[in-house]
Amino acid sequence: MKNVIASEKTEKSKNEVRPILEPLKKVLSFKIGIIPFGVYLALLVIVSALLVKHILPKDMLGASAIMALYGFTCAEVGKRLPIIKNVGGTVIMATFLPSYLVYANLMPVLAVDAVTTFMKQSNFLYVFIACIVVGSICSMNRQVLIKAFLKIFAPLIASAIVASIVGVGVGMLLGLSAHETYFFIVAPIMAGGVGEGALPLSMGYSAILHQNQDALFARVLPCVMIGSLTAIVFSGMLKRIGEKYPQYSGNGSLVKSGDDEIVRLAKEGNKAKEDIKIDLAQMGVTGILAFTLYLGGVYVNSAIGLPAPIVMLLSVVIAKALGVIPDSIEKGGYALFRFTVTVVTVPLLLGVGVAMTPWQNLVGVLTNPSYIIVIVCTVLTVVVTGWFVGKALNMNPVEVAMVTACNSGQGGTGDVAILTAGNRLELMPFAQVATRLGGAATVTLAITLLRILQG
User: Are residues 179 and 82 located together in one domain of the fold?
Assistant: First the structure.
């Protein structure tokens, strides 16, 4: 009898407490990005306390905490802003809002130092790219991969040529010289980013024009950054077009439904991926393979000058095409890809915004309407040409246009931002082709042309 009474009292107590706890539980379960509010609140309090006492570690732990806290916060803002949320708002806010916060001294100096030190000393961007590229290629259907790689070069080449002509033409209509438009606006946009594009471009210009390299670099860098921002916006728009008109989208696949057998295999592969159970050992082995191939690329780069990411990309593509990658690594590749996309992308974008995106350079170009118009028209032409050439080759226009847009991006950081805005990070291998090979071709052509014109 006593036990029954005690049980009734306990149940009554639970019933009285439950109405109070349920709303609290719902609040704590609300997510900022992927972080439940309870965890987010704990992270916010602890990081704030460390910053107030000036004891935030300038290592991977300290930087990761800042990148997660600020990154998912900024991304959540972009996700909820009207209009902007439909054109890559998450990526724009996660990348460019932090850049402004640093410029306006609204982010604690200790936090900025921790993130900058981590991003520049750890080579974290290439860790991300290695995992995305190797993971996505390992998990692709082999026949789809071969067909897509054979076809992608045509829209890339066509878009670069047509965009150069249109960009120079628009610049001349606005009163700019063809010389200034091509060499200081159009070529930098498609040069492949900062380290691989703007820097060698300015060094080549400096040697030919006998001008200060730092001044030339400062002149071309803003066009690279605004071109990348424009490509992000267009990628977000392409995503919306793909959602509204699914006949133009392959949901991440470049290959269109002209080859029923290949499309069937691709669909079967996608269904198989959904059924894959995450195996941490397989995922870890694929990560080790990614690092091994990248480091092999570093060695090859020291010998013949071919960029390490391209060596890594070609190596895994050839291995996949030959069918020598074990099933376990293919499954691990999909798990690695999904983990990297879900957990790492937004913090990485925050790091890019803080450490690699000077706000003052963006503002410099934004005050020149002629430059803005030329940049927008050039990037738009890249996207539109990629769309129509891809469609003519029986490829999915949305995906092809996103890949060609990466030729206007800010190197590897631009590829990540553009494809994230379009929710198509599985296209990273093709984006690397657009950025690395397309950028190298643009730099070589621009320097060669300038040398010829200067006599």
Answer: no
* Three-state secondary-structure class, residue 351: helix
Same structural domain, 327 and 386: yes
Q: Which residue range(s) make up the domain with 39?
A: 24-118
Query: Do the Cβ atoms of 291 and 124 come closer than 8 Å?
Result: no
Q: Which of 89, 118, 147 is the last residue of a domain?
A: 118
CA distance 161 to 389: 12
Cβ neighbours for 332, distance < 8 A, ≥ 6 positions apart? 138, 279, 281, 282, 283, 284, 285, 286, 287
Partnered with residue 32 across adjacent β-strands are 35
Place of tokens 């290629």: 137
Cα separation, 186 vs 166, whole angstroms: 10
Q: What are the residues whose beta carbons fall under 8 Å from the beta carbon of 114, sequence distance 6 or more? A: 56, 57, 58, 59, 62, 63, 66
Say if residue 280 is exposed, middle or buried (CB neighbours under 10 Å; 0-12, 13-18, 19+).
Answer: exposed
Q: Can you read off the two tokens belonging to residue 216?
A: 């030339």
How many Å apart are CA 57 and CA 65, to the nearest integer? 10
Q: Tell me, what's the pLDDT at 262?
A: 47
The answer to whether 114 and 128 are in contact (CB under 8 A) is no
Judge whether 133 and 312 are in contact, CB under 8 Å: yes
Query: Given this model, what pLDDT does residue 261 score?
Result: 46
State yes or no: pLDDT of 191 exceeds 90: no
Structure tokens at 443: 């730099």
Is 133 within 8 Å of 316 (Cβ atoms)? yes
E strands present in 355-399: none
Q: Is residue 245 included in any domain, yes or no?
A: yes
Max mean pLDDT among 43-57, 260-274, 294-308, 419-433 falls in: 43-57
Q: Please check whether residue 138 is in contact with residue 330, taking contact to mean a CB–CB distance below 8 angstroms.
A: yes
Q: Tell me, yes or no, whether 65 and 141 share the same domain.
A: no
Q: Do 234 and 405 touch, CB atoms closer than 8 A? A: yes
Residues contacting residue 148 through CB under 8 Å, at least 6 positions apart: 253, 254, 255, 395, 430
CA dist., res. 391 & res. 396, Å (int) = 6
Residues 392, 363 within the same domain: yes
Q: Which amino acid is at 29?
A: S
Residues 75, 198: one domain? no
Let me know: does 47 contact 40? Beta carbons within 8 Å. no
Domain boundary among 118, 141, 157: 118
Q: Are 188 and 442 in contact (CB under 8 A)?
A: no
